[in-house]
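Pipeline run #58 for the internal structure catalog. This entry was flagged by the ingest filter as a single-chain record with no existing model, so it goes straight to prediction. Upstream metadata was stripped on purpose; only the residue string is passed forward. Reviewer on rotation: M.T. Logging verbosity set to normal.
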Amino acid sequence: GENPAKAGVLKMSGIVRTVLQDVDSQFVGRTVAEDIAFILENEGMPLVTVHDFGKGKGIYLASFQLTDENTRLLYQLIRYAGQEGVTGIYMTDNSYTECDYYPDSGKLVVINNTESRQITKVETHIGQVSLTLGAFETAVVDL
């Protein structure tokens, strides 16, 4: 996959597409077979469909509402569309935390985005890392 920070918006726009709108007002595909429903709309959760698009994926989210959980879902879908992060490696299991791995330095950076203590786990290439982070704390772990 491409590193979005290095590739830039123009290049990534040819790989990743995200459409946020009302499913009732638009046809997604010509046939049901063209759409792959990952999550059905249920109790405010968005309907997600995915299509091959260029070198990546086109993703459709219906009824998307901005919540911590849905923001995490959107982040995971963007990684999936760019064909990175599909294994769950280097993803925190706590939606209030985030991480990034820097392979050249062997550093894993984990951030708590809340004002309360958070416990999180991250699957890495050497196994699982468990952390307890204070309010707004950032941890740097040597792998």
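catalog note: Residues 72 and 95 are 6 Å apart (CA to CA).
catalog note: Confidence is low (pLDDT under 50) at residues 20-42.
status: ready for reviewer M.T.
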